[in-house]
């Protein structure tokens, strides 16, 4: 009710301000980037609340009329011409150098802020401004490829969006069959891990007694989930995805459920890329489930390994013999997993390689190769188990040779695991996974001795 009242009030202020703008002079249709920049300068120099709110709305509306080339020009101008006020910054630097104190440090801080940050703040005052800025950042990300000059602008946008979308503003809501259809449609559309084929498939994932779905929402994007997680309640830790998604499966009686399985996490807002909500989401859902179902004692994922096959084919550090590499060529056969003898041979090679991939392989910048692993290990989870042939879907076979993994979230160990990874790069892993790595080490030694 309060949000609706405030939104109506803001819209009224904006419309009155736009009336003032119209009196000042009509605007042409099909504005180009240079006229939009002039309007941005006017927005920064203005002080009136009504005219400022209206002008912010006008900037956003005119931005929509730009084509891709116009938007690129607009972003390039913001990056080039809307940096700090150099004169004020020089004065603040000189004052700091002559007599450093807390007041001068504060002046230096504010003088160094790019003007585009204040512009973005003022644009956010427009009705629907927050949603528009998220969409604008999605455009910026698309145009940044091969254009390093836009990096500073993106940092400023991320800096502000990170503040506006911090954990304190996010609201956790359960998604079930009574959730409004427009939100359910977005769950279907944005599911990024295991495709939801139709409404019946969606209902099987959110309606049974042993299924849950939760999403984070923001007050300014009330009907748009930011990120959502799908959860299966099971008796034991699963090692394959197909039984969880089967159309004819029998639901687990809730009194027998002991394990909560996070089997899919999907972001919905491209413009919020790089702003992490997932760690908060999982931890809050764990707390929610523990309150609802005190008998749950295991919280674990069943996760894809999207980068494994690419690493096998392209990386220079894959520790595999010539014989093993020849065997790996069998993965190009579409039905290799149906051959029991071949599957057994591939398992002896692929499981140790998967352990090496998670525990030893790194990008040139020293990061874990796999994006999903970076997410869960960075959140403090433990790499619990490598699941052979856990995903036989075309996507699973293409990306990971069917391998899936379980990451265990043990609440008493999360902070310790996170700190060890953040500070020393140590990956928490079970003895079973570490044993696979030792198997790989013995195999490499045999390779050298032969």
UniProtKB/TrEMBL annotation:
What would be an example GO MF term here?
malonyl-CoA decarboxylase activity
Species of origin: Bradyrhizobium retamae
Which InterPro entries does the record cross-reference, listed alphabetically?
A: Malonyl_CoA_deC (IPR038917), Malonyl_CoA_deC_C (IPR007956), Malonyl_CoA_deC_C_sf (IPR042303), MCD_N (IPR035372), MCD_N_sf (IPR038351)
Q: What is this protein called?
A: MCD, Malonyl-CoA decarboxylase MCD
| Pfam families cross-referenced by the UniProt entry | MCD (PF05292), MCD_N (PF17408)
Instruction: Give start and end of each Malonyl-CoA decarboxylase C-terminal domain.
Output: 168-409
Pinpoint the Malonyl-CoA decarboxylase N-terminal domain residues: 82-165
Which GO biological process categories is it annotated with? Answer: fatty acid biosynthetic process
